[in-house]
Amino acid sequence: MVPIAHxxxxxxxxVRQEQPxxxxxxxxxxxxxxxxSGEPTVLDIGCAGGDFLNYLRTLxxxxxxxxxxVSPELISKASTLLSDCDFVVGDIYRGTGLPERQYDVVFMSxxxxxxxxxxxxxxxxxxxxxxxxxxxxxxxxxxxDVRATVQRAGDQTSSMPFNLISQKSINVFLDSLGVRHxxxxxxxPIANPRSHDDxxxxxxxxxxxxxxxxxxxxxxxxxxAVLAIDTIKxx
Length: 235
Hints:
alpha/beta, Rossmann fold, 7-stranded mixed sheet, two-stranded antiparallel ribbon, 5 helices
């Protein structure tokens, strides 16, 4: 039985270059005004194997990328895929090992559900951003913050968090800092079959209207959105 805390290690062997994730396309479109001119510096937090930055490079070859992940193993894999790129082993939640500079565009995707305290990582992202930041993940559109711990049946030695923080809580916090921001909801446009070997990995259920609900073995519906942050303070 693979410890559930090691769930995300599949990124160390997964190859995605030939089939970019659908949300890669969505994020690239959202950030295209910032990525398409000049030579913007770009930081990808939680870069995993480097697939997102590799995809961005195919669309915006002039970007100057930095790949950051808490896992040295994943940074090692990203270094084999990405050329002319800086690499950082850092923890956006604890604020350790962070780059000592700011970036024109900052991304973080599929990571925020791991954090129960949203103020810490948001402050750290803002400190690294001199332009815009795009945080893609699961956020609760209802005014409830959900914090859960997941274990495999029969294994009491390993667990992982799954937090569904509300858009409202994040709005209230960023408003208190005077930071301009907005949420844009996103729905997966294609079917994603279930991997029965790993109930943590998500799959889709087609609705009567032809749209897709994304769930996993926790039976929690995944409601995706991008949180776009403009570090220029509002008036």
